[in-house]
Design a protein that fits this description.
Elements lengths: L5 H16 L4 H12 L4 E2 H8 L3 H13 L4 E4 L6 E4 L4 H29 L5 H28 L3 H10 L1 H9 L8
Antiparallel strand pairs: 1-3, 2-3
Helix pairs in contact: 1-2, 2-4, 3-4, 5-6
């Protein structure tokens, strides 16, 4: 694998830094970024060499990326090594990340809140806590219902919806069905 160009090195470095903010470690973020911009599938040795990581670090990172469904394993004809590539469609990546975050973070929280709301409060503090949990539960339920609706939209319709942005708010205000936040 040739030395990374300054453009690719910058992208890979940035993804490593952002990865830590998104809940994945720097190494995994860099591995993903390299695979994403690569014009061909890469094997673990090529990734380790290009990023100057240990082979074991690359293997662990690839397993994590496969668990997130962000990279796919490929076999090339006549080669016994495993190669990896990533979807190049930004919409597909966004949907995959959103689905995985929901499965890993939102659904367990909803489950915990549902169980907590089934409990019979025995103190005023528990009643207050449960009321607040109900508000959180209702908001998350509303958001997940909206998420399900959005996930069913085709890419073009979703892009149009996102471009509408503040126009929707103005329409709701005009019809008397919405208010702007102070």
């Amino acid at each position: 694998m040739p030395t990374l160009s300054p453009l690719v090195r910058s992208f890979v470095g940035h993804f490593g830094e952002m990865g830590s903010r998104w809940g994945i470690n720097r190494t995994v973020g860099q591995i993903y970024a390299l695979i994403f911009v690569s014009p061909k599938p890469l094997n673990a040795d090529e990734i380790a060499e290009a990023l100057e990581f240990s082979r074991s670090n690359v293997s662990m990172g690839l397993k994590e990326l496969q668990a997130w469904r962000l990279v796919k394993l490929r076999h090339l004809s006549g080669d016994r090594r495993e190669y990896f590539d990533a979807p190049t469609d930004a919409w597909e990546i966004f949907r995959t990340l959103a689905e995985e975050r929901r499965r890993r973070e939102i659904e367990p929280t909803l489950s915990m809140l549902r169980n907590a709301l089934l409990e019979q409060p025995t103190t005023d503090e528990d009643r207050i806590a449960q009321q607040r949990m109900k508000g959180m539960h209702d908001l998350i339920e509303l958001m997940t219902t909206w998420f399900d609706d959005v996930q069913r939209l085709d890419q073009r319709t979703l892009a149009q919806l996102m471009k509408m942005g503040a126009k929707v708010q103005r329409l709701l205000e005009f019809t008397g069905k919405g208010k702007a936040q102070p």
